[in-house]
Write a structure and sequence with these properties.
Residues 1-28 form the signal peptide. This protein has 530 residues and is an alpha/beta fold. It has helices at residues 7-11, 17-20, 33-43, 46-59, 67-79, 144-162, 182-187, 242-257, 295-316, 335-348, 355-368, 400-404, 435-457, 459-473, 495-505, 518-522; strands spanning 83-86, 95-101, 105-111, 166-173, 196-203, 217-226, 265-272, 283-292, 319-328, 409-415. The protein has 16 helices and ten strands. The termini are far apart.
């Protein structure tokens, strides 16, 4: 792997890692003057954070179709002095915004896409869609860029007033739910000059982590079968059914599943099953996510899929090819940066929830059959630590993993959602345009701003981060892209869905010139419970 341009200079710095990794009990409780100034600068932008959060929530766009979201965010960044490169990696809704000059270069990222059929009125503790059947932010991705941009603007202001050098970049995770873009950003060199990445993701907790050993990496593969059409009743013997191949492949995958490792997750849908029953389908496809805990096992699972596709094609006298729609490496987060972030999280503390906030949370938890403990009020005692790979039994994926293997990276999880909701579900949208989310993103922005300032002004922190990256993370494991050279971003995904729903959803876009909050615009009494 190419040597990072900052590494050589960092190795010459005096290493004060002992201070960076000091036990939490030894840390000062009171914020420094710089920390106080940054926290105040974020608080001063609380209204801006609420408007941004509610605006993106109202767009509710799916992956690769985040047109309104990207237009809104890039215009805001340009108004604040950032230079924006749009359409990066050949993706119309992807961009990278840059402000400042010189080293170090710190990048802030977060996802911006929504979930199908997740439309939900915020502040309502039961299923009540804004537009029935439409997509929505049933994962909370409307909030992460708010955390990043508010933090960046607070730090930018301080840098301008104090003549500090350094560069801030902001970028979106487009189509994260399809795990479909970050590996292309890495392949196309957008992280080659970056010294550290601070990622943000919504949570009901306030924490971060280092190391790996949680969740899965994956490759997203669509198998396309090609046959010959015929009259389904008149002369079906003249046809070769691509749908038969799809069904046989799925049967083969399901029988093989019993003999796969417990860590794997293999699941799929049929995006094309033919046109109508009386025509033998000449074209059909099946789309799988193959998830495993490491690169080698992901590749093995993918090869099994290819072998089963070959068998299905032989049995049906059809042909096949495949399309990679996305990929994600298992993540590995940076220990020194995570520990610094956790110090800042402790300094910021959990938001102060109101009685109404807790009422909404408990009512939704009751509706879902979850533990009715309400919103969390206490921080974790320590940063979440990595664990040995052999203990990882699999789970979800995030293509921030690819970024984490190119440059020291962490994910800030900020408390803007309700514990006990279902992932990728309407219930995860209930809090996301309410005071719960508004308070959570401000808290997250404070921790993000403090850590961004640490990275910009403390060479020893970056030295420690790259030492961990070189001597621990990548010592025995090197990044090998899952993407093939011929693979291209699947920018066509979700186009038909958004073409169907966008005209209806436009009527519900947030108008901050008329309404203080999106709750007010929708006429929702907060909280609304059964």
């Amino acid at each position: 792997m190419q040597t990072h341009p900052l590494r050589a200079s960092l190795r010459a710095c005096t290493f004060i890692g002992a201070a960076l990794l000091a036990p939490l009990s030894a840390l000062a409780v009171d914020p420094t003057p710089v920390q106080k100034e940054l926290i105040a600068a974020v608080d001063a932008r609380a209204k801006q954070a609420q408007v941004m959060n509610d605006m993106i929530f109202s767009f509710g766009e799916l992956g690769f179709q985040e047109v309104e979201t990207s237009r809104y965010l890039t215009a805001l960044l340009e108004e604040n002095g950032f230079k924006v490169e749009k359409g990066i990696s050949g993706i119309p809704t992807a961009w990278i915004a840059t402000w400042g000059s010189g080293k170090p270069v710190i990048a802030l990222g977060s996802d911006i896409d929504g979930i199908p059929k997740a439309s939900q009125k915020p502040g309502v503790a039961y299923h009540d869609p804004i537009v029935k059947g439409a997509p929505g932010h049933g994962e909370g991705h409307n909030s992460g860029q708010v955390v990043n941009i508010v933090a960046a603007l607070a730090v930018k202001e301080y840098m301008e007033e104090n003549g500090l050098k350094g560069t801030i970049k902001i970028w979106p995770g487009v189509a994260e739910e399809q795990l479909a873009t970050k590996a292309y950003y890495v392949r196309d060199g957008y992280f080659d000059d970056i010294d550290a990445v601070l990622f943000s993701h919504v949570s009901s907790d306030f924490n971060t982590s280092w190391g790996g050993g949680y969740g899965n990496g994956m490759v997203s593969v669509q198998y396309n079968f090609h046959g010959e059409s015929a009259h389904g009743a008149g002369d079906p013997w003249r046809g070769r059914s691509a749908l038969d191949a799809v069904m046989l492949m799925d049967v083969g995958i399901n029988f093989r599943r019993e003999h796969l490792r417990l860590q794997q997750r293999t699941h799929g849908i049929v995006p094309d099953g033919g046109d109508q029953p009386n025509v033998v389908p000449s074209e059909a496809s099946i789309w799988y996510f193959f998830r495993e805990t490491d690169y080698e096992h992901i590749k093995q699972l993918w090869e099994i899929g290819d072998d089963i596709a070959k068998g299905a094609a032989l049995m049906t006298n059809t042909t096949w090819d495949s399309t990679v729609l996305g990929s994600a490496w298992p993540w590995h987060m940076n220990k020194p940066i995570a520990e610094k972030m956790f110090e800042n999280i402790q300094l910021v503390g959990m938001p102060e929830w109101s009685k109404d906030d807790q009422k909404l949370a408990k009512a939704l938890q009751e509706d879902l059959g979850s533990d009715t403990a309400g919103l969390k009020t206490e921080l974790a005692e320590k940063v979440m630590e990595g664990r040995p790979m052999k203990e990882n039994m699999g789970g979800g994926s995030d293509d921030i993993g690819d970024v984490s293997w190119r440059v020291p990276t962490i994910t800030l999880r900020y408390p803007a959602n309700i514990p006990g909701t279902r992932g990728h579900n309407w219930s995860s949208a209930v809090a996301m345009a309410t005071p719960i989310a508004h308070k959570g993103v401000v808290a997250g922005a404070k921790a993000q701003a403090l850590t961004l300032m640490n990275l910009l002004t403390e060479p020893a922190l970056l030295k420690a981060a790259w030492t961990y990256y070189d001597d621990v993370q990548t010592k025995d494991q090197k990044y090998i892209p899952l993407l093939r050279p011929e693979d291209k971003p699947a920018t066509f995904l979700n186009e038909e869905i958004m073409t169907q729903w966008r005209p209806v959803m436009k009527d519900y876009y947030y108008d901050p010139s008329k309404y203080d909050t999106y709750l007010e615009q929708l006429g929702i009494d907060y909280p609304t419970v059964k």
